[in-house]
Amino acid sequence: MTLRLRLTLAALAVTLPMGLLLLWYDTAKQHDVAEQLLAELIEWRMTTEHARCEAAPESFGGLLARADMPSGPRGGPAPPPEDRAPPPQPDDLPPSPPPRHRDGPRRAHGRTPTIFAYDENLQSRNPNAPVIPKELVDAIRTRDVATSPFGFRSSTVEVLVALSGRTGPCAYVLARGTTNPEWGIFPESNLWVLPTIAVFAAMLLVLGPVVRRIQKLTLAVRRSANSEYASAIVEDEKGDFHFFGEEVAASVDQAMSAMPNTTLERLGSENVSERCAAVAELPRLGGEDAYTRISAAFDDPSEEVRSAAARALFNFQADRAAAFTRALREAPVERRRRIGSAIASSGLASEAISHLTGESREKTYDAFSLLFLMSKAGEVQPLLRAIEEHSNIEVRLAVVKLLALSGQHEILPAFRRLAVRGSLPPEVRSSVMEAIYQISSQGTASGPVPVKR
Which residues lie below 8 Å from residue 145, measured CB to CB, with a gap of 6+? Predict the structure, then answer.
């Protein structure tokens, strides 16, 4: 996963929960405001319609027409009821222009609000009236205004208002609507979305230069690592990172080894495949610098690159044993372990085991030398597996002899387990017993590293 992707995911991990919290808060506030507006709608309607409700409760209520809506909650004066004429205009004033909505023609976004009247027993004489929900019935017993519980996934809002006295066919009024903008009564929503998107976009824009600087620093560190940290990393006035003396060192390297800049860049690439290809190219270039960079590649965090380094060192010169001997001799302890593991993971160990009993003396010598060096580096698992599973008895015996010559006491526990295995051929078991005796009689050995089992 690239650094840019990790930072983007981190930004999303912070922004998304914040967005969900803001969405929940916005929805809850819309619900609260819609409840308040519905309560005001009931109060406004019943101040002028209470007498009509008492006179004909069976026909009172239902869907509200647009003319029935108060404009007061939206910030303007409430219009007069339909059965009343507007107040006279003075003769010297021009007629009032028809009302216009600020946002242009309105489109319906939700259900039209409804109101119905109920008697003191919370029963309505209007056959179209809905049954009052139980939570509202329980709540209105102790308060004058009861509201439906807030539901995040529901836009429906219900308000039950107890009128003064709580008697008669219009003792209670139920108003039902939604939080969606409709008929100019409910609040507009999601005003916070644009600022949130703007903040998130600004975060991504700010992270861009940070990612580029970290990538430059990573490249400088890798170049310094390839030179075995011989120089310090410095930052120039433009914000670019270099390790001290980089230009001089690059010039010397170019003069001595003629290593292309493209190879150097690929050695410091973040892409594992590019680093593997660059390491595989080093034996063809040759020179001391190429050898140094092959050795440094054993410290790469990727097993693929370390395996490529083992292959590159194997092909670096004709005397393959000498190349690995030098690399192990000059390497610190941790790198020795990685070299031994890379010989196994690269497939070189398997190839060498198959050459132990070949007709070519040169290949047999190279194979024996390589496996011996691998065992001295602490990597013996491929050899133990060959003793147990290889189809050629001569190969098994040769591997036992090789491990016996390494003289490592750390191999004794593994040999003792093999000696009691009933599946081993008798001659192999006998050879293992002789190896145990040979290693034990040599006294305590001081191998370079513990054996990896």
Answer: 39, 159, 160, 161, 162
Residue 44 Cα distances to 3, 83, 414, angstroms:
60, 15, 93
3-class secondary-structure state, position 437: helix
Q: Which residues contact 422 (CB under 8 A, 6 or more apart)?
A: none
Residue identified by tokens 């108003």 is 175
Q: Looking at beta carbons, which pairs linking 190-194 to residues 24 or more positions away fall under 8 Å?
A: 190/23, 190/26, 191/26, 192/22, 192/26
pLDDT digits (tens, 9 = 90+) for 260-315: 888 888 888 889 999 999 999 999 888 888 999 999 999 999 999 999 999 999 99
Q: Where are the domains of the chain?
A: 23-80+109-191, 335-453
pLDDT, the chain, mean: 76
Q: What is the dihedral of CA 62, 63, 66, 67, to 10 degrees?
A: -10
| 3-class SS shares of the chain: helix, strand, coil, % to 5 | 55, 5, 40
Alpha carbon distance 424, 420 (integer Å)? 9
Residue type, 78: A
DSSP annotation string for 221-289: HHHHHHTTS-S-EEE-TTS-EEETTHHHHHHHHHHHH---HHHHHHHT-S-HHHHHHHHHHHHHH-SHH
Terminal CA-CA length for the chain: 32
Express each pLDDT in 77-89 by its tens digit.
444 444 444 444 4
**Which residues, including other chains, have CB under 8 Å from residue 54's CB and lie 6 or more apart?**
168, 169, 170
| pTM greater than 0.70 (yes/no) | no
